[in-house]
Amino acid sequence: MADINSKLEIGVTTGPIRGSRKIHVPAQTNPAIRVAMREIDLEPSSGEPPVRVYDTSGPYTDPDAAIDISAGLAALRRDWQFARGDVEEYAPREVKPEDNGKTGPDRSGGVPAFPTALRKPLRAKAGGNISQMHYARRGIITPEMEYVAERENLGRARLAEYTRSGESFGASIPDYVTPEFVRDEVARGRAIIPSNVNHPECEPMAIGRNFLVKVNANIGNSAVASDVASEVDKMVWSIRWGADTVMDLSTGRNIHDTREWIIRNSPVPIGTVPIYQALEKVGGVAEDLTWDVFRDTLIEQAEQGVDYFTIHAGVRLPYVPLAAKRLTGIVSRGGSIMAKWCLAHHKESFLYEHFDEITEIMKAYDIAYSLGDGLRPGSIYDANDEAQFAELYTLGELTKKAWAQDVQVMIEGPGHVPMHKIKENMEKQLESCGEAPFYTLGPLTTDIAPGYDHITSGIGAAQIGWYGTAMLCYVTPKEHLGLPDRDDVKVGVVTYKLAAHAADLAKGHPAAQVRDDALSKARFEFRWRDQFNLSLDPDTAELYHDQTLPAEGAKTAHFCSMCGPRFCSMKISQEVRDFAAKQNQPSTGFIAAQDAEKGMEEMSKVFKDSGSQLYMGQGEREHD
Amino acid sequence: MADINSKLEIGVTTGPIRGSRKIHVPAQTNPAIRVAMREIDLEPSSGEPPVRVYDTSGPYTDPDAAIDISAGLAALRRDWQFARGDVEEYAPREVKPEDNGKTGPDRSGGVPAFPTALRKPLRAKAGGNISQMHYARRGIITPEMEYVAERENLGRARLAEYTRSGESFGASIPDYVTPEFVRDEVARGRAIIPSNVNHPECEPMAIGRNFLVKVNANIGNSAVASDVASEVDKMVWSIRWGADTVMDLSTGRNIHDTREWIIRNSPVPIGTVPIYQALEKVGGVAEDLTWDVFRDTLIEQAEQGVDYFTIHAGVRLPYVPLAAKRLTGIVSRGGSIMAKWCLAHHKESFLYEHFDEITEIMKAYDIAYSLGDGLRPGSIYDANDEAQFAELYTLGELTKKAWAQDVQVMIEGPGHVPMHKIKENMEKQLESCGEAPFYTLGPLTTDIAPGYDHITSGIGAAQIGWYGTAMLCYVTPKEHLGLPDRDDVKVGVVTYKLAAHAADLAKGHPAAQVRDDALSKARFEFRWRDQFNLSLDPDTAELYHDQTLPAEGAKTAHFCSMCGPRFCSMKISQEVRDFAAKQNQPSTGFIAAQDAEKGMEEMSKVFKDSGSQLYMGQGEREHD
């Protein structure tokens, strides 16, 4: 066990993200609530204030935080939970051998139980409902909502500078997010705050079309002890680069213990697909799945603190044959497990039949539904077909059943969709699911580029995010080919962060463009360090720059390797601005074209008088 | 010189692209015209015919072709040119020391003249016009047009299978491309066939919104001898991965000789920005540029065979001050050179003033205009501003002047544009430039991801390609940071090929989806080799697969590392299909939902009788 622990200690990446400082901003409505963010300081020459950015990285990037993987993170939300007086501690369900797949001879090498998992689980007092939606609908603003409001307000203080522009396709993005706005969005089901009462380490975040577009990263798949360390590290690594939630898709053996290590150390919501573990408990034979085994698995994971469950309750018996006409059939694992169960028993899905009972469990722990699209298309050919939309309508029906019990819901979406068919997915989802947050995988906009599917899907993700999707599930370069390693996880997360940001810009999110403008201004003023630090991946930006101009001096040089030392197109722009200024124009002023002739004469004189030597020479900038 | 040559021999990548065969298809209208394509053979088990794909790689991927960089490629079009009887050979302009920047002491190390450049240049007989547009408008179908028609018809033979779907935003994409259709598109200026009479090695291709979306790759920037080899190799490397045209942006010394080596070995159209070389000839001092120096440079490059010239004639004196209000001013090198010249002399641009004289030269060699957008935005903040659109309207005015002399034109576009402002660019271009082909750089949809700008721009490129842009200028991961190396060139080209293909799919191009479906079917049937071979980058696809499952056996295994050997969601899909078949349904048949109950009963029985053991186990496919 010491080995395992030390491995874990070693495996996790800590320390500040290059060029930024961790800060904790007191919520305006409640200073006791301190919201984690990052600030990027700019060079003094800029005369600009630090740029504040959304931060998902948790205490791992805080030099003042003591990280002990074996102890887990601090229970940020614990006091809030008790203060509400509606929860009870109770004796947990006993961990059974089958929870870790150890019914037979253990070939796993063993994973140690999380050493300090002594805390008793919480749940709502008998018959109670502790979901954020339930509070919201009763008009209660929770600390979680206050935290979210402050967190989403990034940069909006500087909005005076901006006239908003964008096409939001009917979204209702406010100039400024108030706790009351958050409450209202959660109450009407248009946003969720995944927050299992047994995951108090989680920093509250919202998923909804009127908030910043979020990104999910998947980890898991490991089944041997030595992988627990790497899975925890992958979780920490993915949130370092911006993953807003993480799904633990671990299967095989040691599922229970692996998940405990991940949740106890995660500052972001954790999602799972419970049917995976239920399947393992019945020896991997789908037909042998029962409601009791599944229900027991939900309780097990609820007590550990899983924040949202993917439930494929929309894969109904009558829909299975619709997959027969497809080019690529059923590509969702959960979907095919349920399809197989339905086929074998010729019965309606037990998930569909027992949906209200599942909801009872969800509300007692405040777990959010992620209604799975088990019949999503697995190829361009199958996009937007009957099977897909038949399931979507059923997910809409189930959404209303969950809402009837004040349980939070989001809806999973495709998949593989050509660009011209993406919008229909968003429109049908909004219409059939009452604006419940949409959570899509890509979609991939072509099937011909395996090895580059983070890009084929990033194109679709940016667009569907613009249309209104609330969270984008990342795709890595290894999609369809193999298991993502640490580098793939980073590339996947950064690709999806830029896609989500492009969507926020296009929607006209008031906080989004501040960072683009700060980076562009830094670029124009040759503040190379600021350019690197303001980017989504400062390490790679500086690495690429240094491959051509490694000298430290180049970091302050008024040129780049594209244009070389003797020429730069940025220089003349600055001169044009200087001339404009000399014409008593503000530096951001505007010389109307019709006045230009006169202006040009004087500018020409100024230019010749100044006799300033422009850098001229080789190279190219932006291709011409 | 022997060194240089052997370097060149070594540097160039030859041999077939993995899994495909070079073929030459006789044009249906003229069997003497043999059109280069590639065919990908599928595993016999598929029972599928080979998949034919568009091929830009030239003789370098043809095992039967003898490649000698010092001799250059065969003059494919030479006979067609003479057959028209409207050209004359003449004594070329003498190469001057300043053409290679050798007026001062030569610090370059020297680049050898292309050894076999003995061929005399051709031009139209006095007062003549040999542009493809001129022929087209006189109703003449040239061999170039026949070649293009055959080349664009990829896969359309199999169209019987398809009902076309897509949103083309007013494009007129035919079910089948005829030479007459090509002639008509060129005649009306909606497509161009760049084909300088002195680049007979070029395989004809068309750029237009009713043809497949094309991709341009930029090379150049080198100024020392040793780089000539790497620049020629970069050209060959970029067309291997699918670049439809290549721009040589070489600057500094040895520009003339470097360009000669590239053109003589290029089977794709070569574009340049002549102002770069003109600037070098006047010692890099923009104010010293004159019409005479520029004109002499045009003749020099026309005689070498440059197929299209980027001319920044839209950067007019009155527009320069409009850049003063910008966040990032002028980011186009050519644009800032002209802006500086205008400022210094307080005169209207000599490119604008002498435009008709430039056109006289273009028509004598059949060089196409690529009217440069010197005032394109260099940041999200500056997108769609007055400076940009003022220039665009002028480019529209110049387009009509060029067309008045039957000279081919395309229009360059931005740049940096958030998603919600992209469509306006396309609409304004179509409206002001009379549907002349649009040729855009990206656009980048956010500024915050340096190091990933091939992706931030790939997102914008796919969308503007869908809206109607005819050619996409690639962006590499090094954009804004450094000079692209060989790997960057490949990533940039493949990223843009997938973006262009996503656009073709969304436009409903009849030939596009054949390849997606073939790859998806191979994926569904576990034909791993076919999956790799059908992808844009077979080498990377197989490499990624083998990182998890290197064994040769895994290439035929009915599972992948995502799902592992004991489970696969594809299997059940195939079972569902089998059951459907047993119900006397065609394998692509459809069981209506209302009949499903009955169908299910029988299927349930079939399933239990068959007692077939499904693979079940660990892992995940497409995230759930």
Report on this model:
The structure is a homodimer of 624-residue chains. Chain A is built from 21 helices and 15 strands. Chain A is of the alpha/beta class. In chain A, the strands form four sheets. Chain A has an eight-stranded parallel β-barrel with strand order 8-9-10-11-12-13-14-15, surrounded by six helices. In chain A, helix 6 links the parallel strand 8 and strand 9. The first copy, chain A, starts with a helix and ends in a 14-residue tail after the last helix. The N terminus and C terminus of chain A are likely disordered. Chains A, B: Belongs to the ThiC family. Chains A, B: Keywords: 4Fe-4S, Iron, Iron-sulfur, Lyase, Metal-binding, S-adenosyl-L-methionine, Thiamine biosynthesis, Zinc.
Number of continuous helical runs of chain A = 21
Percent of sequence in beta strands of chain A? 5-15%
Oligomer: homodimer
- Please give the radius of gyration of chain A in angstroms: 26 Å
Proportion of residues in helical segments of chain A: 25-40%
Poorly predicted residue ranges of chain A:
1-10, 584-601, 610-623
Task: Provide the spatial order of strands within the biggest beta sheet of chain A.
Answer: 8-9-10-11-12-13-14-15
Main beta-sheet annotation of chain A: 8 strands, parallel, barrel
Secondary-structure map with pairings?
The structure is a homodimer of 624-residue chains.
Chain A: H1 2-11, E1 20-27, E2 30-40, E3 51-53, H2 78-83, E4 87-89, E5 122-124, H3 132-137, H4 143-152, H5 179-187, E6 191-192, E7 207-208, E8 214-219, H6 226-240, E9 245-248, H7 255-264, E10 270-272, H8 274-281, H9 291-304, E11 308-311, H10 333-345, H11 350-353, H12 355-365, E12 368-371, H13 386-403, E13 409-413, H14 422-432, E14 438-441, H15 453-467, E15 471-473, H16 486-507, H17 513-524, H18 528-534, H19 538-548, H20 569-582, H21 596-610
Helix pairs in contact in A: 1-6, 4-5, 8-9, 9-12, 14-15, 15-16, 17-18, 18-19, 20-21
